[in-house]
């Protein structure tokens, strides 16, 4: 999976490892990633690491080959790495636009492309994109992020159609606001306003997203493809 060292990513790595999967993720800062790996190891959880910036197709391909070298073929891919560069569109620079599109959306092409042929040959695969509630409903100050996240679902439903006959399901999880660094970095007064809009009256937990991801993996979920699973405390109930 990508972005495994982050708030949601760590929960996904933990849950998948605890349910018997061999898990790998990428890193950009080796020292930080090794410290993270040791922390999980202390809890009895093993996650393999491979260097790679997912916004680069060459890096992504090398990362996938390294994971295959360490663990064997990739049967499950979770495209989770993501960033925000928030500002209203009339102030947005092309760099803020590009960084968000390449990290959140181009990364789906970059990482999925080197794994898809193997999945098709083996006639089994699971590809899960972590999008966002804000790709479903839009968000003030996030034209770049909302475009990237909505694009991830467009990617999901096309890939789902192309690969259904090969035993590969492709789905999206669209989280609402989860209490990770990304959201805790938002000023407290803004966060309080966000929580007030969530029917459950609280932020989500990273493991609640990990649970949604794990739902798509078993053979029993083989009929579910091209779906978008909203996990947002009831904040948005559209597609
Ligand atoms: P974090 O910021 O905690 O983690 C992001 C992860 O992505 C980190 O591991 C980071 O690695 C990695 N990453 C970022 N850019 C790159 C890159 N170019 N190449 C490789 N890895 C990269 O975010 P969250 O855990 O909160 O979010 C995970 C996903 O969930 C994101 O896609 C986010 O958009 C989405 N999401 C989050 C929500 C929330 O409320 N938190 C709500 C809805 C969606 P590094 O340590 O190297 O930076």
Largest sheet: 4 strands, parallel
> CATH topology, anyone?
Rossmann fold
Q: Identify the CATH homologous superfamily.
A: NAD(P)-binding Rossmann-like Domain
Mean pLDDT: 97
Q: What helical percentage do the residues reach?
A: 40-55%
The small-molecule ligands in this entry are: NADPH dihydro-nicotinamide-adenine-dinucleotide phosphate
CATH architecture level-2 label: 3-Layer(aba) Sandwich
Low-confidence stretches: none
Q: What is the count of DSSP helices, taking H or I runs of 4+ residues?
A: 9
Span between termini = 25 Å
CATH class: Alpha Beta
Instruction: Give the beta-strand count.
Output: 6
Strand order of the largest sheet: 3-4-5-6
Strand content: 5-15%
CA radius of gyration is: 17 Å
Protein name: Acetoacetyl-CoA reductase
Keywords: Oxidoreductase
GO molecular function, one term: acetoacetyl-CoA reductase activity
Family: Belongs to the short-chain dehydrogenases/reductases (SDR) family.
């Amino acid at each position: 999976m990508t972005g495994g060292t982050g708030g949601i990513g760590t929960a996904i790595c933990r849950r998948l490892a605890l349910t018997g999967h061999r898990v790998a993720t990428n890193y950009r800062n080796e020292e930080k990633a090794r410290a993270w790996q040791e922390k999980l190891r202390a809890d009895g959880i093993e996650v393999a690491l491979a260097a790679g910036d997912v916004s680069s197709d060459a890096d992504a391909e090398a990362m996938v080959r390294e994971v295959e070298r360490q663990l064997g073929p990739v049967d499950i891919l979770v495209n989770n790495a993501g960033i925000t560069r928030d500002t209203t569109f009339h102030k947005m620079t092309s760099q803020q636009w590009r960084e968000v599109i390449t990290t959140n959306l181009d990364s789906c092409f970059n990482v999925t492309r080197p794994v898809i042929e193997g999945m098709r040959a083996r006639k089994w695969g699971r590809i899960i994109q972590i999008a966002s509630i804000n790709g479903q409903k839009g968000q003030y100050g996030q034209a770049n992020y909302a475009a990237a996240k909505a694009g991830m679902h467009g990617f999901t439903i096309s890939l789902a159609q192309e690969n259904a006959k090969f035993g590969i399901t492709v789905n999206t999880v669209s989280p609402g606001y989860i209490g990770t660094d990304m959201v805790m970095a938002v000023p407290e007064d803004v966060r309080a306003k966000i929580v007030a809009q969530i029917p459950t009256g609280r932020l989500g937990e990273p493991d609640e997203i990990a649970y949604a991801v794990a739902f798509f993996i078993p053979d029993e979920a083989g009929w579910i493809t091209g779906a978008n699973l909203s996990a947002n405390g009831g904040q948005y109930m559209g597609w």
